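hey team, just a heads up i'm posting the complex here instead of the shared drive bc the drive is being weird again. everything in one block, sequence lines first with there labels, then the predicted structure for the whole assembly after. its two chains so it's a bit long, scroll down
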Amino acid sequence: KVDTGVPEVPVPADDTPEVLNKALSGLSSRCWKNLKVRGATISIFYRNQLILYVISDLFLWLCARQVLIVQIKCFHEIITIGYSVYHSYHLPWFRTLSWYFLLCVNYFFYGETVTDYFFTLVQREEPLRILSKYHRFISFALYLTGFCMFVLSLVKKHYRLQFYMFGWTHVTLLIVVTQSHLIIHNLFEGMIWFIVPISCVICNDIMAYMFGFFFGRTPLIKLSPKKTWEGFIGGFFATVVFGILLSYVMAGYRYFVCPVEFSNDSNSFTVDCEPSELFQLQDYTLPTVLESITGWTTVKLYPFQIHSIALSAFASIMGPFGGFFASGFKRAFKIKDFANTIPGHGGIMDRFDCQYLMATFVNVYIASFIRGPNPTKVIQQLLALRPDQQLYIYNSLKTHLTERGLLTTLEEAAA
Amino acid sequence: MTELRRRGAGGGDPDSAENISDKEADGEDRLGLPSEGEGEMEGDCKADTPDAPPPTDNTPQCLNKALEGLSSRWKNWWIRGILSLTMIIGFFLIIYLGPLMLIFVVMSIQIKCFQEIIQIGYRVYRSYDLPWFRTLSWYFLICVNYFFYGETVADYFGALVQREEPLQFLVRYHRFISFALYLAGFCMFVLSLVKKHYRLQFYMFAWTHVTLLIVVTQSHLVIQNLFEGMIWFIVPISIVICNDIMAYLFGFFFGRTPLIKLSPKKTWEGFIGGFFSTVFLSFLFAYLLSQYQYFVCPVEYNSETNRFAVECEPSDLFVIQEYTLPVMVQNILRWKTVNLYPFQIHSIALSSFASLIGPFGGFFASGFKRAFKIKDFADTIPGHGGIMDRFDCQYLMATFVHVYIASFIRGPNPSKVLQQLLVLQPEQQLNIFNTLRNHLREKGMLPPAVLEQ
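-- predicted structure starts here --
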């Protein structure tokens, strides 16, 4: 029964580089060898990335570009699975249409981001201004064109297949592309909001794996038989500690902490600002229990570290659900890995399945608890209003500020 | 869509060719379910049709009696005609009852459409025996509605919200609460995955999400349009209905060249005739409606009387202006200028969209029905099918109107901007205040700065 369902997904070829194979030829146990391959690959991957980032000025561009590349790769992997499940290789329209929809949705999201963050640049250049003013309309028109092409491409014997692929494409877009844009929004808040969540998820992955490897006994969920309660709980505590330490290290640097802004004068990104209260050391009085243990009365912490506890708690508790979802998906469609891009790990989606919910959570968290509306954006909207509406707001704001005592009588008189 | 339906055996034959070739597609669905053996593959095509309950004759007794004498074809025609008229009258009645009633009706339609599409999903995937799924689908519907309605309430009922303490809390953390609710549903889904039904469950999950995306988003855009002014709700819907009817009539009387293989009953004559007549009729209809404040003013919530108020100074769009006719038209009509509402120009854009692109929504729904071998979405309305059958052409219209309004008509909403202002930090507020003051001074809206002593 298992075999009849296997679609024509190619057997993952062994992509492990020769050099690694030679180095590990001595190891006896297969599982140790696997572990070493995985460990080596991860460290090489990240070390290369890190070097590249550190020596480059365009760290930000690389992060954003990386996010885009990962997004496209994930989309491609999931769509390929759809093709193999539905044997729809011979519907040539579908590749075109799927990529077209990907382009449309990306255009829409990137357009919104560009309009928000590059406002002054956009206002200067005439074609950009028109594109940004009618952005939603243009995106909708592009999407409609794709929709009409889909309807016109419906072929008599393949209706159901085509509707399935249409649905598959849209759900994939919803999951993959929205996430990647939320990541970029988080990035613009300050690189720490990009680095810390991703690191927490990776750390939880690794820690849960290690705790499970050494202490694992009670299975966690039938979906993923290799996960254990010991790994889950151990991973949780380890990740929280890791999150606190990492945030402490990063919160000291302006480069990570400041929102990314586009400077009109230098026409480039700047990360320079007065760090907000979140990233300034404050004294916290320890509860008496801890006082007696550690002998300290107060401790200096960044408020951000408190937030990092929330982030790592989410990563440890909810992140695995993203992983279970992906495991269920793989079992449902009887595939071992999403693809075999990375040796020992499978496809890009395999690495990013736990990240799935994290980006959305961070974005919602920031919107709810951290930042208010963006002042630049508010000014934009203000200047777009009609003069009588502007006057109305001006008067309301004046009353409000006077009530708060922020406007001195002198300024009032001048106004 | 508006095809004459012959009750009885007529519909089976054209589909038989599809039945055989679609076996493969059906077969794919069964791969994950070892409990269904090969025997199912043969009986599949036949099994599909009996699953759909034979359309019961919902026609009320009184109509049946009145139409006893007529032959079956004319009887159908009359039933459809009477029901159409009833629906249109009902539509106008509801408009008369006011915005609150309209919102309520939109909500009910949304829930019914959602239910119809989910029912189809259950039938297609035979997933009646996964009890979690009904709960989860309805739960996700409630979550998404909560999210959208919360955003609307926060926008339009700002004053009311400021007064009540629990409402303030809910509004401030609205996104977080909605996300938490959604997450709970997501986790329930993951925990509900049962060993032999993974694929089915993923399919239903995706089916639910796509349905939510289509149906619920549309209905909320409709309500947002409504708040702009009831004319933005009434005119688009009327245009689509008008196009439906006109295309049908032109096709009935003059139809000859088929339009698209998907819907064999549609013709080019119907399409083009429908286009021109819709543009013309909506032009007149827009003229008629633009005169009344009841339709033209944005719907606002009056915090004192605790009711919806539709009273305002009509915007430029709804004030008659003179337009100089192009020379050609001048020669024909011998008028130099003509008095029009600017809104009528916009109505031409709306009706063109409804006539040219709207039918694609109908073809999409026809393709969907053929793909899943169903005649109608449901049989709620006698002679017409389900609610979705009536609303399939409306599908893209609401989104288009919303995008159109956002791009070409209104700017940002002043009360929303004010809300955002009041949430900012005091220094940021001061900053913005100064910027705004300078801007207004430049424009001459404020007296120039008095020199400080």
